[in-house]
Specification:
This protein is α+β, with helices and mostly antiparallel strands and about 400 residues long. The chain has 12 helices and 21 strands.
Length: about 400
């Protein structure tokens, strides 16, 4: 008899689970309270970074590294590329990042929706799941009852692929976590990740709008917690940009677990210099431009707004001559170019986050991503305690987990 499977959520992982389960002979119904693949449309700045050639477990955050590694071995980047090529999607590679050739995320969404149609998957949109409960004996041999605001139905298995709390405008409302808790799961605390960081410093408004190459060192009690390099964006409330996004999950986790911690971001605005080159640069500049004003002396090194702030922070007068100025204060400006301090107080909320860190612990599911507490309940995608860096890692987890859950749900 054909197995009936319900999938809650029609995002990347839900669509992958549905296609996989249907290909293995199951009758699949997807319940979605928004539109199919809505979040896919915003991934990769609308270009949809599908996966990455450099696919390492170290680029993910999870409390079960071994299980994650096993999952990526079963369905990794090569399987992802082959899957989409078989659907007719032409891929392009740029510095190890894989995109559709058209660089249109809408093409990825459409090609998945098309395949759902080919596989005769039923998609029910604009629906709210009220309850998922065990069936009684009179439920035609099915295990689970799914009750919506419009109807109810009975299924052999249910796959929860309803996302996290991140980017709620795309349909992620965190409802899946509540179902997971009812099934007996204890969640790894869910926090925003791939998100901007907020700082206490009043000077942030002076620097708003600046973009610059930088290295960000996150420090607590003189101990470095993490570090990233890339294009930094300065905002009126703090710091943003891809390197900040990469750090944000770790920062939020640390602040959650250490309530009284004071985190500092030391910003190196000139990461292109090594130590020796920088020392030579300072010596030559001090020797050559003694007759320049302070303002002219520091002109051209950094964005002028940043440099004006550093000069002011060192209590130097921009109109004074270098030769008449305090050398220690001049050296202080140079030092701040390589290590300027921001005081972190947290991050923007779930509405600004691209993903979440935390969720259903991988230690509480099987190798097939089946609940250890509720047989024939599976999980896929962001609802699980796995989040990755920018660069196709979170979508790879969606494809990986969706495939594993869909295959297992159909075959068991």
């Amino acid at each position: 008899m054909q197995k009936k499977i319900a999938i809650i959520g029609c995002g990347a992982s839900g669509m992958m689970a549905a296609i996989t389960a249907s290909r293995h002979g199951a009758e699949v119904t997807i319940y979605e309270h928004s539109k199919p693949g809505k979040k896919i449309l915003s991934t990769g700045n609308g270009k949809c970074n599908l996966t990455n050639e450099d696919m390492k477990v170290e680029y993910f955050s999870t409390h079960a590294t071994g299980r994650l590694r096993s999952c990526l071995t079963r369905f990794g980047k090569e399987e992802t590329k082959e899957f989409f090529k078989d659907l007719g999607l032409i891929l392009k590679e740029k510095n190890g990042y894989y995109y559709p050739l058209s660089e249109q995320a809408s093409m990825v969404q459409q090609i998945l929706v098309n395949e759902l149609g080919v596989q005769n998957v039923t998609i029910i949109c604009d629906v709210i799941i009220k309850e998922i409960s065990p069936c009684k004996k009179q439920c035609a041999g099915k295990r689970w009852k799914v009750i919506t605001d419009k109807e109810h139905n009975f299924y052999d298995a249910v796959i929860l692929a309803c996302g996290s709390k991140a980017a709620p405008k795309t349909g992620s409302d965190g409802s899946g976590y509540e179902f997971a808790k009812k099934f007996g799961h204890k969640l790894v605390p869910v926090l925003p990740a791939l998100v901007q960081l907020r700082c206490k410093d009043t000077f942030c408004k002076e620097l708003s709008g600046i973009r610059t190459e930088a290295t960000i060192h996150i420090v607590c009690d003189n101990k470095e917690l993490c570090c990233e390099r890339g294009e930094l964006q300065l905002t009126d409330y703090g710091i943003s940009g891809i390197p900040v996004f990469q750090l944000s999950g770790k920062v939020n986790r640390y602040l959650f677990e250490n309530k009284k911690a004071e985190l500092i971001a030391h910003i190196d605005f000139l990461p292109c210099f090594n130590g020796e080159e920088w020392d030579v640069f300072i010596k030559e500049r001090l020797t050559a431009f003694q007759n320049f004003t302070i303002e002219r002396f520091f002109c051209g090194i950094l964005n002028q707004k940043i440099m004006n702030l550093l000069i002011k922070s060192a209590q130097l007068n921009p109109r004074d001559l270098v030769k008449a100025s305090n050398k220690n204060k001049l050296l202080q400006v140079f030092q701040m170019c390589r290590s300027f301090t921001f005081h972190i107080e947290g991050s923007n909320g779930f509405d600004q986050a691209q993903v979440c860190t935390g969720g259903v612990d991988l230690n509480e599911v099987t190798d097939d991503l089946e609940s250890i507490y509720a047989p024939q309940i599976y999980f896929a995608g962001e609802i699980l305690d796995v989040d990755g860096r920018c660069g196709g890692y979170n979508l790879q987890w969606a494809w990986t987990s969706g495939f594993i859950a869909g295959e297992a749900a159909a075959q068991r």
